[in-house]
Structures are given as structure tokens and as C-alpha cells.
Amino acid sequence: MLTQTPADILRRVRKIEIHTRTKVSEVFRGEYHSSFKGQGLEFAEVREYQPGDSYRSIDWNVSARFGYPYVKLFQETRELNVIFLVDVSASQDFGTRIMLKKEKLAELVALLSFSALSNNDKVGMIMYSAILEKYLPARKGRNRALEMLRDILYLEPKDKRTDLKAAFRYADLVLKKRSVIFVLSDFLDHNYSEPLRMLARKHDVIAMQVLDEAELKLPRAGVLNCYDPETGAAQYVNTADPVLRDIYEKQTRAAQLKLTEELQKARVDHLLFTAKDEVTATLRDFFERRKRHARIR
Known about the structure:
Elements: H1 6-35, E1 41-48, H2 60-66, E2 70-76, E3 81-87, H3 101-118, E4 122-128, E5 132-139, H4 142-154, H5 164-174, E6 180-185, H6 193-202, E7 204-210, H7 213-216, E8 223-227, E9 234-238, H8 242-265, E10 269-273, H9 279-296
Parallel strand pairs: 3-4, 3-6, 6-7, 7-10
Antiparallel strand pairs: 1-2, 4-5, 8-9
């Protein structure tokens, strides 16, 4: 792989920005804006008590001063903190066709971060492998989004392995304000269900799973030397064997079903993307479902 100069990196990130901003302006801003609730209430004003007002809203200090009951009024705070919890373990450098998994992660973060910024929200990122690789607190501004894209594409992680359990616990510890958290990972890990449930109790968590097509269905490509980038383990596999391919596909379906069930129990939305998927339609449908669900509630 050729060494990338800072100018090369800047050009690539800028190209992603230009491509993404067109999509955001065309289809995402309205859907994004109405899909996420404000993250709390802030005091607006006091007014005289009216029939039907809850006694819990009475401001007793103001009422005593004026000799008539007054109630506090609150309004929803619209501004959101949007956090991207990004898996940067070595498995994100895998890709068999159109792009690497981490390039798909960058595409998703670009669309969502520029949508958030166009809505005047703050964006930040937690990059995790088996250890914390980098934390960018939520801020407004284009430069923050460009910094996130650069790091997803070019940061060299110190650890190759994945530990989602530790990532969720770190996010739970460091994020004090209720946030919208997009978890971007292949979710090829285990024993993280309880920390994820705890995180989802405090925040609005969306799982965005990115897999290569070959991870879902073993291609027929003869004998391959398959290498695990996280552990270093290698094994020759005869992908021409139909029995082997069938077993692999059944195991993968079972793993995906288990993941879906775990995320549902944690009340976490789940979206699956592969390299060939055009993400715009999938995200637009997701935003629409969230809007309908919010109206029903």
C-alpha cells in the first residue's frame, strides 16, 4: 500500500464530504430532524394556573409572592449530542469486493454527521478496539466531522482485537448527557449484552452492523488460506465444498438471529449494511419508521 501524504488524505476526505453533502441536502435533513426527540426539558416561563394544569407544575415561590398559583412551563431541548461509537479493530480492514468495511463505516458516519450538523447538533466519536483508541467529545462544526472521517480511514489502532463490552462500559462512563449513539461495528464479538442494555437505558442507541458479503455467505472460490486479522490464526478452507458452504451459511444465519434477539431485548434498533448496499434508501426508511413509531407513542 502506498504511503498517503497529508494532501492525499485531505483530498479523499474532502471528496467524501462533497459527495455526502448533496445527499444530506436532498433527502436527509427533514427525515433526520423529525426522527430523534430532544434530549430533555428546559425551563421556559411561568404563567398563572389554569384549570387542567397539574399541581406538580406549581411554582410555590412565585405563587406565594403574587398570592395566586403560578405554574412552570418547560420546552423540549432540540439540540442533540450525536456520538459515533466506532469499532476500529483489525477486522474492519477486510473487504472482498467494492470496499473495505471501514470505508463503509466512513460513508455512514459522513451521512449521519453532516445530517446532524445541518440540524445544529453536536457530533463526537469514540474509537475502540480492545482498548480505547481515541475519544473526540461532541462539538459543532464541519471540522469535527472531517476529523472523524480522517481517523476512521487512516488511524492505525494500537490493538487488533475487539472488545465491545469495554467500549459500551466506557461510553456509559464518559457520556454524561443523554445522547444519540450510533454503534458501527461488525458485532463479531460476544458477552456484551448487559453493558449494551445499561447504555441503552440512558441513551438512544442504534446498532449499525457492517459486514462483507463473504462474511454472510461463503463464496465459491476454491481453496483459500483464510486469515483472522485479529488473532493471526490461519486455516486452509475448500470453499468449493457445498456442504461446507451450507454449514457456514446456517451458522451465520443463526448468529445473526441471536444478535437481532439480543438487540431487541436491549431496545436497540438494528441496521445491517454490506459493501454493495446503497445506504441512502436504508437510512431514509429507518428515519421514517422512527417518525411513525414516535407518532404512535
